[in-house]
Design a protein that fits this description.
It comes from Flavimaricola marinus. This is Transcriptional activator FtrA. GO terms for molecular function: DNA-binding transcription factor activity; sequence-specific DNA binding. InterPro entries: AraC_XylS_family_regulators, Homeodomain-like_sf, HTH_AraC, HTH_AraC-typ_CS, RmlC_Cupin_sf. This protein has 251 residues and is α+β, with helices and mostly antiparallel strands. The protein folds into 2 domains: 128 residues, Jelly Rolls; 106 residues, Homeodomain-like (Arc Repressor Mutant, subunit A), CATH 1.10.10. It contains 9 helices and 7 strands; from the N terminus they run E-E-E-E-E-E-E-H-H-H-H-H-H-H-H-H. Strands 1, 2, 3, 4, 5, 6 and 7 form a 7-stranded antiparallel β-sheet that branches. The radius of gyration is 20 Å and the shape is globular. The two termini are 35 Å apart.
Length: 251
């Protein structure tokens, strides 16, 4: 049985660090904006950059502080009968932006419909599923490794990836050969994959920063904010500004 205790927005301030403390209940800590350092006794410090979160299990001594002046966070305190393990679990990287949307929905329910316990518990359980152990990935063959390396490097410096020519050059291929390699491995268009990377990174920046549209466009590889606006509207069915208003807790 799950017992909800508290779910609310909060704030990390580097002038007022938290802990060391150990709760007797579960603590779902989510970073919505900014960066936070979490330290668990006997482990290396963990740095969380929005969107990111950790599930801190009961009786786990930890401390936390903002990296920079402050960070916007939320906490969900709850108890689950029969769960006695300690430690923490981190949200998987690929699911963090989606999990943040679920966390925000849960926060809205906690504020607007706090007595709807059954729905709130179901939503919390869905969020917690995202923290479950991920299946081991199968080993990649040579072509898969080469392609994965190119896309990983491109994602790290997306602002410099003006076209597939730039991505292909990362592994010393011509654009046509790179397109063929991607289609052979994934069965999809390399151009569509690059647009997906741009949109995912734009979503993350819109949801977790206050950067201008011009700066976000630059960081994801578009020359102008207008280009980002058109691509985002075509892909997501709304403008970047509309997405930001829905995604940020205090936008």
């Amino acid at each position: 049985m799950t017992q909800l205790l508290r779910h609310a927005y909060g704030r990390f301030d580097n002038r007022l660090p938290i802990g060391p403390v150990a709760w007797s209940f579960h603590d779902l800590l989510w970073i919505h904006q900014g960066r936070v350092r979490i330290v668990v006794e006997g482990a290396e410090p963990l740095e969380l950059s929005a969107p990111d979160g950790v599930l801190i299990l009961p009786n786990t001594p930890f401390s936390g502080t903002a990296i920079g002046s402050a960070a916007t966070a939320s906490v969900c305190h709850f108890r689950v009968a029969g769960m006695t393990e300690s430690g923490l679990k981190r949200a998987p990287k690929k699911e963090r932006l989606d999990l943040q949307a679920l966390v925000r929905m849960a926060l809205r329910l906690a504020e607007e419909d706090p007595d709807n316990t059954k729905r709130r518990v179901r939503l919390l359980e869905t969020i917690l599923d995202g923290f479950a152990a991920q299946p081991e990935e199968k080993p990649l063959d040579h072509d898969e490794q080469r392609l994965a390396r190119a896309w990983a490097l491109a994602a790290q410096n997306l602002g410099a990836m003006r076209s597939l020519v730039d991505v292909a050059a990362l592994i010393n291929l011509r654009e046509s050969a790179f397109r063929t390699l991607h289609r052979n491995v994934h069965g999809t268009s390399a151009g569509a994959y690059l647009r997906g990377l741009r949109m995912s990174q734009a979503e993350s920046l819109l949801a977790t920063t206050g950067l201008s549209m011009t700066e976000i466009a630059r960081q994801v590889g578009y020359g102008h904010a207008e280009t980002l606006n058109g691509a985002f509207r075509q892909s997501r069915g709304m403008t970047p500004g509309t997405f930001r208003r829905h995604a940020q807790p205090f936008a």
